[in-house]
Amino acid sequence: MTAPLIVPAADPHAGVAARRAEIDAAIARVVDRGQYILGPEVEAFERELAAYLGVPHVVGVASGTDALLLTLRACGISPGDEVITVGHTAVATVAAIELAGAAPVLVDIDLATFTLDPAEVERALGPRTRALLPVHLYGHAAPMEVLRELAARHGLQLIEDCAQSHGATVGGTKTGAMGSAAAFSFYPTKNLGALGDAGAVASRDAATAARVRELREYGWHERYVSHVPGMNSRLDELQAAVLRVKLCHLDEDNARRGGVAELYASLLRDTGLAMPVTRAGCRHVYHQFVIRHPRRDALRAALRDRGIGTLVHYPVPVHLQPAYRGRLRVVGPLARTEEAASTVLSLPMYPELEPAQVRRVADAVREAAHALAR
Ligand SMILES: *Cc1c(COP(=O)(O)O)cnc(C)c1O
After folding, report:
1. How many Å apart are CA 224 and CA 247, to the nearest integer?
2. How far apart are the CA of 163 and the centre of ligand 1, in A?
3. Which atom of ligand 1 is nearest to the CA of 190?
4. Which of the four CATH numbers 3.40.50.300, 3.30.870.10, 3.90.1170.50, 3.40.640.10 does domain 14-248 have?
């Protein structure tokens, strides 16, 4: 018998319940208007997200994976090209590169921030390298200052995976506003989450945004005439209306996540556990609060016994997954990527977590880690 969960790892319903009246009104507005695809809600959401990010262009699409694929295609990435990214990420990052017909090249991460290590990029560069695709994992930005300089020096596109970094900043600039273009996911548990699948592409370049716009709907400029071979990756009006409500509360929600993280950090300070790090000049938005432990699976089971839900992001690096094993170009042994995969543990993290729940989790982590150390 497993005990019922006292604190779940994530609770997307809590974020909806907190804004139920606003969300209900937004949904009713769409239902009554009778326009369900690419209408005024999508247009307004695109404008509002662009203003939030500080970029001139945002294009709503059907998912984060599509956002990555369409960003890659709009940036001119095509078969024969190589894109440098990491294996410690959601598989979607690497899948999208292959969907664009290009070849992913995986490099190792920095274990403090779990993001792409720029020192590894030089070794991965080759005549076919066309783009760098850093992932701002767990809510903390990859080292964009260095990556921008590298991309400029080698004439590469710099594409940001912002699926976990809505609102995160580097030197006051939002992630999503620093590269050639950026992909966002609004999967329900992300910092900005819809009530289903949704995504968006952000870009400072009008031509890139225009290409995403045509690619997301059959290559159309006007109805029924395809100028390029496109696809259907439209954003629903319903999801856009919900996202407009959620976007209004994103900064407040991120601040709450920051409060939860601060409390975890102070309660777990002297446990010897590896804790999240924020680089100078960055704002971490704590999509996840990730600790590391050498006996991660035992710690996870002990927490489960105490009613605490946790998750592992991610247990198997992409280059070791059955679909990819042995056929991706990997630069170096990816020792830190594999170390992360076997030691990371995501503690419960969502804006509605109460301080008493955070204390309960921290107490359980302390007890369990202490018992494992004996
Ligand atoms: C969630 C996620 C994606 C994929 O987004 P979907 O909306 O699920 O397609 C891509 N990259 C990262 C880092 C993610 O966390």
Report:
1. 33
2. 5
3. 1
4. 3.40.640.10
